[in-house]
Amino acid sequence: MSTRAPLITRRVAVSAAARRATIAAWLLLTPALIAYISFVIWPLILGVQYSFYDWNGIGPSTWVGFENYLTVVTDPTLLASIANAFILVAFFTVIPVGVGLMLASLIRTMKAGPFTTISQTILFLPQIIPLAAAGIAWSWMYAQTGAINQFLSAIGLGGITRSWLAGYDTALPAVGLIGSWVLTGLCTVLLLTGISKIDGSLYEAIRLDGAGWWREFFTITLPGLRQEIAVLITLTVIAALSSFDIIYTSTQGGPGRATLVPGISIFRIGFTQSDVGLASAFGIVLMVLVLAVVLPIQRLSRTSDR
């Protein structure tokens, strides 16, 4: 009995300490949970609820079931906006990640010094500029008398100058390049951080084998950045599919429907046409599309790591 009593007392003390730690953890998490439930979970639940009604946001609502969802998947205008968003993935994801890989690999080969730090700072600057401001600034540069056309005229390419955001064929690529410019710095800096975690002895070993830059890149750098690339693809795909700021401030979805994306469509349907039910249904469909694209990317990245 004399040996069991201290053991029981110790277990009771450990259990009490564990309970106190659990209570303290929940107390620390409670403010964040309240904010998350208030501003994420509850609005999502309301959005799902509204999507089954025909409601203008003020008057009485009418139950319509899945009619709003049927409109989303059959309306040519809404489907075109979804197609435009997937086209933007090439500009928001493929170009920034590809260019970021090249720049990060090149910067790594340079000797550490002021130039390396300055280059990283310059590349990251577009990321801290508000997207609305970026859209306005680029719309000025894309104008008929803007900096881009002046540069083209100065190098003898005045024949191709135009108002880039006013052309049906050029507006969406022009907007996409704004997104590429904004996101390239983020991709480069994150990939540089990932490269710094790769064991330097791997690069030394492959150089001793006489490998060049390309073989070094595809053999060591690219496989070593799987997690970072997966994160960047996730972030940039979400940015492309949910894009709003840049397009609203530069083209507002025009000319015509050339740059119309789901974010602009939801804004117009909800605040201009006062059809809260259809806007909510389109928002839920957009969320499902984002998850359908992002979740397989995350799963593939985890599978490749194993």
Topology:
Blueprint: H1 4-50, E1 53-54, E2 62-63, H2 67-74, H3 76-109, H4 114-128, H5 131-142, H6 147-154, H7 171-196, H8 200-208, H9 213-224, H10 226-241, H11 245-250, H12 262-272, H13 276-305
Antiparallel strand pairs: 1-2
Tell me what you see in this structure:
This protein has helices at residues 4-50, 67-74, 76-109, 114-128, 131-142, 147-154, 171-196, 200-208, 213-224, 226-241, 245-250, 262-272, 276-305; strands at residues 53-54, 62-63. It has 306 residues and is mostly helical. It folds into two domains: 4-50; 76-305, MetI-like fold. Strands 1-2 form a two-stranded antiparallel ribbon.
Summarize the structure.
This protein has 306 residues and is an all-alpha fold. It has helices at residues 4-50, 67-74, 76-109, 114-128, 131-142, 147-154, 171-196, 200-208, 213-224, 226-241, 245-250, 262-272, 276-305; strands at residues 53-54, 62-63.
User: How do the SSEs run, as a string of H and E?
Assistant: HEEHHHHHHHHHHHH
Q: Which CATH class of the largest domain? A: Mainly Alpha
* Helix coverage percent: over 70%
CATH architecture annotation name of the largest domain = Orthogonal Bundle
- Output the CATH homologous superfamily of the largest domain: MetI-like
Indicate the mean pLDDT. 87
β content, as a range? under 5%
Number of helices: 13
Quote the distance from N terminus to C terminus. Answer: 50 Å
Question: What is the tally of beta strands?
Answer: 2
